[in-house]
Amino acid sequence: MALDHVRPRFYYTRRPTPDLTAVKTARKNGGSITTVTQPDDTFDWRIEVKATGAAAVFPAGAVWFRDVLPAAGATYSAPTVTAANPVTVPAGLGTCAIAANIVTCTTAAGGTLASGQSLYVTIPVDPTGTGTLTNTGATCQADYSGSVTESSEGNNACANSTVTVNTAASNTDLCAAGDVSACIALLIGHNGPQQNPPDACSGIDANFVIDRSLSISDSELSQLQGGITSFASALAGGSKFAGTQFSTTAETITSGYQSAATFNTAVNAIDQQFYTWTEGGIQTGAGNTANGTANPDMMFIVTDGSPNQNDNSGSDDLSLSMTWVTAANDAITAANAARTAGYVVRAVYAGDPDTNMPASWDAAERLAFANAVLTGLGGGTFLSGSWDQIAQNLLQSAGCDPTVNKSAGVPGHSVAGGAFEYVDWTITLTNSALTTKTGVVVHDANANNLISVAQIGTGGSCSPASGAGDWTCVIPAKVGSTNGQLTLTVRTTLAAYNICTGTSGTNTVTVSGGATGTSTASFNIAALPNDPSCLGTIVVHKEEAGSLANAANTWNFALSGGTAKANLSISDANQDSWTGLATGTYTVTELNLGHVATCSGTVADGAFVTTHGTATNPTDVGQSHGSLSVVAAGRRTCTSRTRPAPDDRHQQVELSPGRRRRGRQRHLDDRRHRRHQPDHFGLDDLRHAAGGFRRPGAGDHR
Q1: Which domains does the chain have, with CATH numbers?
Q2: What is this structure's pTM?
Q3: SS3 breakdown of the chain: % helix, strand, coil, rounded to 5?
């Protein structure tokens, strides 16, 4: 077959092209979402950019992703880029930036996204308001710059993603669900605070609103009655009293204001009933004003728990949180109205929080809610304590509680000029009520002797009248504008102390038994660093030995390290001292040069001898004997011994004008022989050391 009849066939393979897609989802806690509960409930928008078919190669400067986020309703944090299949982010594709609400991902030097690999751009979102946040698909796009030729250019945009931001749950909803903090937030405000009347203890119209709910036990009711009647008795001289009891219902127990005796009889007749309708008690009490006087009006709400009824039906469900909130707000509203009407309203709380509160509340939550309610009832403050503290809390809330004050201690001693042995303290008890205050117990743990008792007023006393405490006292009543006062002087024993450094301390007194309070005072004894017993002494003893011994010789010593002291000049075998030295470290220096000398005493040569131990000392004359620690009343002694060298066989020579001695020339020869040996002494050395000595002249020869 001829070749010109052969038809050629051509084959080719199409090169794959990439396809980029972008998928956006709203995510929180690892899952997709369409709603968040409220503003500030953050979430993420995550966009997956994926390459299929072939690798997508982005040239330098390409914008491989861009997203325009909602301009209002949220704030955004910096986006991050992660990868999958594989998880390593390709070089050049790991950075995105956000400006205002626009996210832009640009590759500066180019980058390649492998086929099948995904990049995840995650944008943190913080909603700022309620409503919807929609990230539209038209503004969310892979290969925004169109830098990659794709098999399909129509699927680069994201679909719309919408997140609904709900309104925050109301405190009512949260409280109903058992959130105690939300319940407290629902309590209304009060219109306090209020100041006590200036003369409350001289006379008030006291209007009592008394809780008698069934949560109060028989013994607690008895203590409640005793506390209220004790308060009334204390203020009986110039005050009148009205009473209202409340539980499921509210009723007056007096016909307006009555004497303390009539009021106390009515209080002692109270018995328990069921629930706690505090609002009704306040409203009923505020209208019980017959027989009132010109005295200031004060209302005292005495309760063991929080309100739990908003009417007198007794039908409210105590298991519901909002029952307690509603009843409390009704009661606070009534207390606010009483304050507006002219009452100074005080709240006194006894016992523990009501255990009938919702079962989901723990003990701390019950206490927190009760405290918040009592704060509202009392106009910003209230007093709480055990049942036996009701009387003193009522007195304190009215400003009539006896006060205690301890003055600064005064040190004393039995021998004038001696060390202090004890401290005397003055304790002043003040009573601003018109009746005497009995049964006040004064406790001072450190005081071992009651020295004296003085009073302003009459009827004051303490038992025992002297000696160790505790002491049970009666404080005189206020007379006119003068408060009753009882002053105790008690004594504490002072422990031994160092007068050189002085001492100080504190002491506390407490009072109880119908009164309450503590007072702490201090004492101070100044240091006496210049007392003779606080000063030390350094004694220097000088001794010459062997051929050098000469009582006529004198030796000079200097002291440094403290207050300047004159040099000592000591003759042989004598001693002198520096006295009146403050505690410290000193240095003794022998000023005479040219001799071998050591300090000695009962120990080896070369050591200081001291009543407080020994200290190593230099052996060379002229060097300093340092590190002498002088303590209070201490005495340090140094014996300095000068002795000739061991091979010195010379006798002691007395040199004076006009006299000669045999052997002088031999001595001079010996001196010339040893003049350069430091352990030997020549005539010049002796003359220098002894003072007044001189080398004999020619006229001295005979």
Answers
A1: 19-165 (2.60.40.740), 205-398 (3.40.50.410), 403-525 (2.60.40), 532-642 (2.60.40)
A2: 0.48
A3: 20, 35, 45
